Amino acid sequence: MVVQVLNTAAAGMFAAADRLSASAQRTAAWGLEQSQAEQKVDLAHEAVEQVSAKTDFTANAAVIKTADEMTGALLDMKV
Q1: What is the value of pTM for the model shown?
Q2: Residues 13 and 67: beta-carbon distance below 8 Å
């Protein structure tokens, strides 16, 4: 069961990192577009996406930390 939790949390961390990277690339490309009419990047949306990705990453990291602590407590009881 712990392994499933760790796998799920790790997958969530990778997904959050991918979302953050994609948003950062869109934000960086915003100023490079040809004209105002062609700019399709909503900077407010990208800011929210980046904060959301960071929060998701942090939450998944907390899940991994908690699973590690629970495993340690379980092993301590067994000894």
Answers
A1: 0.81
A2: no
